Amino acid sequence: MLKIVPDEPALVLETSLHKTLIISDLHLGFEKRLSSRGINIPSQTQKVYLRLKSLIEESSPDRMIVLGDVKHGTTKIASYEWADVPQFFNKVKALVRSVEIVRGNHDGGLKALLPNDVKVHPPRGISIFDGRESFTLIHGHAWPYPGLFACDVFIMGHNHATIEFRDQGFRMAEPVWVVTRWNRREVARSFLRFSGSKIKEDPITSFRDAFGLDISDPKIIIMPAFNPLLGGNAINADGASLLGPLLSSGGIKLDESEIYLLDGSYLGRLSNLVS
After folding, report:
1. What are the chain's domains?
2. Which phi-psi region, left, alpha or beta, contains residue 101 (left: φ > 0; alpha: ψ -120 to 50)?
3. Residues 14, 158: Cα–Cα separation, whole Å
4. How confident is the model at residue 134 (pLDDT cuts 50, 70, 90)?
5. Neighbours of 248 (CB within 10 A)
6. Helix (H) or strand (E) segment spanning residue 2
7. pTM greater than the 0.85 cutoff
8. Cα(152)–Cα(208) distance, rounded to whole angstroms?
9. Rounded CA gap, 205 and 199, in Å?
10. Are 206 and 142 in contact (CB under 8 A)?
């Protein structure tokens, strides 16, 4: 069973084995990068930890999965990350039995910063089965493994989705949940091209022939970023697009996406919110 945590950019997935808290896009150290642009903000790592601690105490998971971008640096490890990231995860490990990470595009060198018992998964994703539905968990900057296309629910981060509100020159943005679907044929075609597989007249049949399974019609959930400082990608702005090979494949029904605020308020379909 999958539930959105009210007022938080987090999900709880319960199975017979685990109660898993899912978050995405911590971007620890983001404020240090802002300082290079003349924007001086004290370290926010402790605030991010305290927010997560409160969430863990409220939801009582035994497992936590972060869908990528634990740190803000990309390929190299910044000097401040040698302190911030290990301290953060050592404290989190005291709160929850198991901590896992699906690697994101900002997580170069991450393994060296983590406690030995924090498991790091490849960026192409993992699957969880709750006895009724299968869930694919990815960051979103890389194509999933072929076998994960047969799932019932796709969960990803990476885009820091927001909705922009405007009124007489005033502008503000709020983080949102995006719930959408894909066009099976177009997604199959794009993935077959990526994998170098032969595309026949019907991409769905070609996908089945290439990988031995059918591409499903899952619900796709794009998570808000956990770090509130990040701002985000205003998906209702003119010309907005989503990042990552899956979402930019041309196979995502973005205009038909359902948009929700963190408090659960339903804003409607994206096609009615475009500014």
Report:
1. 2-182+217-272 (3.60.21.10)
2. beta
3. 23
4. very high
5. 12
6. strand 2-4
7. yes
8. 17
9. 9
10. no
